[in-house]
């Protein structure tokens, strides 16, 4: 029987090495990324981005400080990049996988990412970061486990389940991308269905291929839940079962018991669920927020099945009800109740609370307002009335070779007020190295939820509120035990404030996690620079560095991202 080559399947080779006095491992993966027209998750002919033929893609299962090598073969007909949502890429933004740090992998080519899960634990996910491809799949779970020498603050569960939940379009991502220049699609259209691990809701008329988990009575299981969608927050619940929240995006939380949990676009959580009910089958539900979706009829209500191993009963009861999807007070109160566990270790043996914000000195404040705008007739999303335009040359590449000259102008972007008129720009601002920054996010997008993500860091979520933010809001900040995460929601008409310690030199993307917002300009970059050339302070470019744009050879990798608007004639402002 012929064996599969390394270009046909994922290969995981683990070599134990000694790093900084702690055991770490090298994990080698080979990914073939292609467009599959046969999977049809909703029984409609639709191309899906798969990795080694799988949708969702394979789980990356690592431990703190491991080195992950992923050789990505791009079998799509367009450029490709992957980003690692929540992996901080310590001292190494060269591996971040966004348009500002990396040249894309061209069709028919391959490139190897090498990154370390340095000083991290927790639940994360990866996805393709350019060309609106996330709406076509290509995402998968990332687990970063504790080292054996550091205790986990709860008993070992019987098993762990990855649950990637997200909204999905009936149309292909290419089709949606092609009409993004219309206001209806850019501002109003929402996805059509909610998938769980790439599967449609239980009982859906299009297919019987729903997600289910088989469990044993009396045992406790860990569910790692991520919102991998493009637009919609959801409320997650399991019929007749309590959820014990234990972790979010690399931080152990104070353990709180919940009936349901709101999960916003780009966020990840871990909950423990004990199988203490009558042996039967139970609904797993993810219903959208801020949407009138009938729990028993709408395709936008994701439904899976929790199956007790000895159960012979069939599901027949109505779906369990959740909170009112428009009840912002419920959601805000729950968000504020998610606190950092100050006494447990995580990636390091010292307690998480060793790193607190109670007495820090803020060296910078950015007040960032998200909004829609029309620029030259094009519908766009903006930050402080500036809509980001992706330059031909990645910012990090230009920064390395020419200090950004000819590609971006540092610090022209208004960080504390909105411009009078909307305009395009390449927005790059200085973040003070080893300084504390306060980021205040304002949501003026009407009735839509927004979520923000900062690559390279975890930030302390110190405040969430309704209405306008003002300096007096600081008196309401939680400076005792704010949870640390990398993605945070901002409620309609409201604000969210976070603190981040900028100790990780690099070029770091700050963006909306809502895919249309990001694709149409709601992003910027924070340049955290350390003048020390010591590679222990920031790593040099990798030996396999791709060149493109002004540094490319004959246009290798230098074309626009597919479907992106025409570039601005000025490199930083028009």
Lay out the secondary structure.
Elements: E1 13-19, E2 22-36, E3 48-51, E4 60-63, E5 67-74, E6 82-85, E7 110-116, E8 122-128, E9 140-145, E10 159-168, H1 173-178, H2 183-188, E11 193-196, E12 212-215, E13 220-227, E14 234-238, E15 243-248, E16 251-258, E17 261-263, E18 268-274, E19 281-288, E20 302-308, H3 328-337, E21 362-375, E22 378-383, E23 386-388, H4 395-402, E24 423-425, E25 428-431, E26 436-443, E27 450-454, E28 459-466, E29 484-485, E30 487-490, E31 494-501, E32 506-512, H5 515-519, E33 523-528
Parallel strand pairs: 2-5, 4-9, 10-13, 12-20, 21-26, 23-24, 25-33
Antiparallel strand pairs: 1-2, 2-3, 5-7, 6-8, 8-9, 10-11, 13-18, 14-17, 14-19, 15-16, 15-18, 19-20, 21-22, 26-31, 27-30, 27-32, 28-29, 28-31, 32-33
Q: What can you tell me about this protein's structure?
A:
The chain is mainly beta and 574 residues long. It contains five helices and 33 strands. It has helices at 173-178, 183-188, 328-337, 395-402, 515-519; strands spanning 13-19, 22-36, 48-51, 60-63, 67-74, 82-85, 110-116, 122-128, 140-145, 159-168, 193-196, 212-215, 220-227, 234-238, 243-248, 251-258, 261-263, 268-274, 281-288, 302-308, 362-375, 378-383, 386-388, 423-425, 428-431, 436-443, 450-454, 459-466, 484-485, 487-490, 494-501, 506-512, 523-528. The radius of gyration is 23 Å and the shape is globular.
Cα shape: globular
Spans of at least 5 consecutive residues whose pLDDT stays below 50 are 1-21, 554-574
Indicate the multimeric state.
single chain
Biggest sheet overview: 6 strands, mixed
Q: Cα distance, first to last residue? A: 61 Å
How much of the sequence lies in strands comes to 35-45%
Number of strands: 33
Total number of helices: 5
Radius of gyration in whole Å, from Cα?
Answer: 23 Å
Strand order within the widest beta sheet: 11-10-13-18-15-16
Helix content: under 10%
Label the structural class: mainly beta
Give the averaged pLDDT, no decimals: 91
Biased composition (Basic and acidic residues): 530-540
GO molecular function: copper ion binding; oxidoreductase activity
Protein name: Monocopper oxidase-like protein SKU5
Pfam families: Cu-oxidase, Cu-oxidase_2, Cu-oxidase_3
């Amino acid at each position: 029987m012929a064996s599969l080559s390394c270009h046909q399947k994922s290969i995981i080779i683990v070599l134990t090495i000694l790093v900084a006095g702690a055991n770490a491992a090298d994990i080698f993966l080979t990914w073939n990324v292609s467009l599959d027209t046969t999977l049809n998750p909703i029984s409609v002919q639709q191309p899906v981005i798969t990795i080694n033929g799988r949708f969702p893609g394979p789980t990356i299962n690592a431990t703190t400080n491991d080195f992950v090598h992923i050789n990505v073969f791009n079998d799509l007909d367009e450029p490709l990049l992957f980003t690692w949502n929540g992996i901080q890429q310590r001292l190494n933004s060269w591996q971040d996988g966004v348009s500002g740090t990396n040249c894309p992998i061209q069709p028919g080519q391959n490139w190897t990412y090498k990154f370390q899960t340095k000083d991290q634990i927790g639940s994360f996910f990866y996805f393709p970061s350019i060309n609106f491809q996330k709406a076509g799949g290509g995402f998968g779970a990332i687990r970063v486990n504790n080292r054996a020498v550091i205790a986990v603050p709860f008993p070992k569960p019987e098993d762990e389940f990855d649950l990637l939940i997200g909204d999905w379009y009936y149309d292909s991502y290419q089709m949606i991308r092609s009409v993004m220049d219309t206001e209806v699609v850019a501002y109003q259209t929402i996805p059509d269905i909610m998938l769980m691990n790439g599967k449609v809701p239980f009982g859906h008329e299009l297919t019987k291929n729903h997600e289910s988990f088989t469990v044993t009575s009396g045992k406790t299981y860990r569910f790692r839940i991520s919102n991998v969608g493009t637009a919609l927050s959801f409320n997650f619940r399991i019929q007749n079962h309590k959820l014990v929240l234990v972790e979010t995006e690399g931080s152990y939380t104070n353990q709180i018991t919940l009936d349901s949990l709101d999960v916003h676009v780009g966020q990840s959580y871990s909950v423990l669920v004990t199988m203490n009910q009558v042996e039967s089958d139970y609904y797993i539900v993810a219903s959208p927020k801020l949407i009138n979706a009938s729990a028993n009829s709408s395709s936008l209500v994701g439904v899976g099945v929790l199956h007790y191993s000895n159960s012979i009963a069939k599901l027949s009861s109505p779906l369990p009800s959740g909170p009112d999807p428009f009840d912002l007070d419920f959601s805000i109160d729950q968000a504020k109740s998610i606190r950092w566990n100050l006494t447990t270790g995580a990636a390091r043996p010292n307690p998480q609370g060793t790193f607190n914000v109670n007495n820090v000195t803020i060296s910078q404040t950015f007040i960032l307002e998200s909004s829609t705008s029309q620029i030259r007739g094009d519908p766009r999303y903006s930050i402080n009335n500036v809509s980001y335009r992706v330059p031909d040359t990645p910012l990090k590449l230009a920064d390395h070779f020419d200090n950004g000259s000819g590609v971006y102008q540092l610090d022209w972007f208004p960080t504390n007020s909105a411009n009078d008129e909307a305009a395009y720009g390449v927005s790059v601002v200085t973040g003070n190295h080893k300084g504390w920054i306060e980021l205040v996010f304002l949501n003026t997008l009407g009735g839509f939820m927004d979520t923000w993500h900062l690559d390279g860091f975890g930030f302390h979520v110190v405040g969430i509120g309704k209405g306008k933010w003002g300096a007096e809001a600081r008196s309401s900040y939680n400076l005792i035990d704010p949870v640390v995460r990398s993605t945070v929601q901002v409620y309609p008409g409201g604000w969210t404030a976070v603190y981040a310690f900028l100790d990780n030199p690099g070029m770091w993307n700050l963006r909306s996690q809502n895919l249309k917002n990001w694709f149409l300009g709601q992003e910027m970059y924070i340049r955290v620079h350390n003048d020390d050339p010591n590679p222990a302070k920031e790593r040099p470019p990798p030996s396999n560095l791709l060149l493109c744009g002004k540094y490319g050879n004959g246009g290798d990798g230098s074309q626009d991202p597919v479907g992106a608007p025409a570039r601005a004639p000025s490199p930083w402002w028009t």
